[in-house]
Write a structure and sequence with these properties.
The protein is α/β, with parallel strands linked by helices. 42% of the residues lie in helices and 20% in strands. It contains 15 helices and 14 strands. Bound molecules: arginine (ARG). The site of arginine has 9 residues, from strand 6.
Length: 407
């Protein structure tokens, strides 16, 4: 949105991360766009103890008020758990750890703006990422009357210019030559981009990882874990019942300890470019792996197959910022309906970067019938019935082959 259109915004609530772009947004909105009051909102999504310095940094950068909101519990219950139930992996690999946070931040940002009587919200996303799409579309759905100010999309400053602008306003440059990465983090994982990683042939250095151990530092002994699910939600690990946030924390610890959950991928962004992305999402990937396995035991064959298509569409629309759209709602209806029988336990062995499923069971909902599956003497399958089935099943193939022979 150009300067002349925003001139009337007096009080703005800015989504704040403490990074260079969002910090520079504060003086920029005031000095260049004449905003009178910038209030920052930083979301606690389980990234840990870094929030107090972030809160202070917003004030030091000129914010009139700096709010930190604890969103950890809704993040896991309303966003991560549905993603596990959907086995959501964008392009078959990325479990959406960053993408899932954006609609929640947008929702809270809008609420804060309403509570404080702000006439606009703002974010510091650049014009070539996915996050701008997610924020703008979500805010547009939730509060179509609220202006969205996007200085970092307008200011045409290079990263160096932005840092220099910030330094002139007393904002210290947080990204040094030693730490050239762009990092997004929350309880579900970390995404690491930029610096040397922009060359897709450069192997990510060990220093970029924080939640997962390098294979050389993982225990030599394998560790067996058991994850229990109720209606598709993970509810216990190794027999210990855990609330949703604790399940994620425990899964992160276990998988991270064994070096499971790192990704190095080329990803297709919404804006049409390919980017090289490093992720570590140990717990989420472990839980999805286990959940997929339990579904293979408890869902009918046609439902599992059909669900794979729904999962892929669901992951696409979450990635593409359409969380609050009609297709998301409709697909959720299907997903919810399938999860009633996804109850049971999956056993996995963690070892040296791998999480291998070694067992699964469901006392209430298993569709695996031993008397049908066995090759032993208690086999109940009627082998002779197969002949008639194959006669009909193979009919089209035989007719087609015969016509080819005659022609
Ligand atoms: N490419 C990932 C995604 O679209 C990660 C984005 C990271 N965002 C950030 N502001 N650093 O979900």
């Amino acid at each position: 949105m150009a300067q002349e259109q925003v001139a009337r915004a007096k009080r703005v609530v800015l989504a704040y991360s403490g990074g260079v772009d969002t910090s520079v947004c504060i003086p920029y909105l005031k000095q260049e766009w004449g905003v009178e009051e910038v209030i920052t909102f930083a979301a606690d999504l389980g990234q840990g103890d870094e929030l107090e310095p972030i809160r202070q940094k917003a004030l030091d950068s000129g914010a009139s008020q700096s709010i930190v909101g604890d969103l950890i519990d809704p993040f896991i219950r309303e966003f991560a758990f549905p993603a596990i139930r959907a086995n959501a992996l964008y392009e078959g690999r990325y479990p959406l750890s960053t993408a899932l946070a954006r609609p929640l931040i947008a929702r809270r940002l809008v609420e804060v703006a309403r509570e404080l009587g702000a006439d606009a919200v703002a974010h510091g996303c650049t014009g070539k990422g996915n996050d701008q799409v997610r924020f703008d579309v979500a805010i547009g759905a939730l509060a179509p009357d609220l202006k969205v100010l996007t200085p970092a999309r307008e200011w045409a400053m290079s990263r160096e210019d932005t840092i220099a602008y910030g330094e002139r306003c007393g904002i210290p440059a947080p990204v040094s030559k030693k730490n050239p990465y762009s990092i997004d983090l929350n309880l579900l994982g970390r995404s690491i981009e930029a610096g040397p990683l922009e060359d897709p042939m450069v192997e990510p250095p060990e220093e970029v990882f924080a939640m997962t151990r390098s294979i050389s530092d993982t225990p030599d002994e394998p560790q067996v874990v058991e994850i229990a699910f109720e209606q598709g939600n993970p509810v216990a690990i190794d027999g210990l019942a855990l609330d949703p946030v604790s399940v994620i924390r425990r899964a992160n610890e276990l998988a991270g300890l064994h070096g499971f959950g790192r990704l190095d991928i080329i990803e297709n962004r919404v804006v049409g470019i390919k980017s090289r992305e490093i992720y570590e999402t140990p717990g989420l990937l472990l839980l999805i792996r286990a959940h997929q396995e339990l579904e293979s035991l408890t869902l009918a064959a046609d439902v599992v197959r059909y669900k794979r298509q729904i999962e892929s569409s669901w992951a696409d629309l979450v990635y593409q910022g359409l969380w609050f759209g009609p297709l998301k709602q409709a697909l959720d209806g299907f997903l919810d309906c399938t999860q009633a029988t996804v109850n049971g336990v999956v056993r996995l062995r963690l070892h040296k970067g791998n999480a291998v499923v070694i067992g699964r069971s469901s006392s209430s909902d298993s569709l695996y019938v031993p008397a049908m599956a066995t090759y032993g003497s208690d086999d109940r399958f009627d082998h002779r019935a197969a002949e008639g089935f194959i006669y009909v099943w193979g009919m089209p193939t035989r007719l087609w082959a015969a016509s080819r022979r005659q022609g």
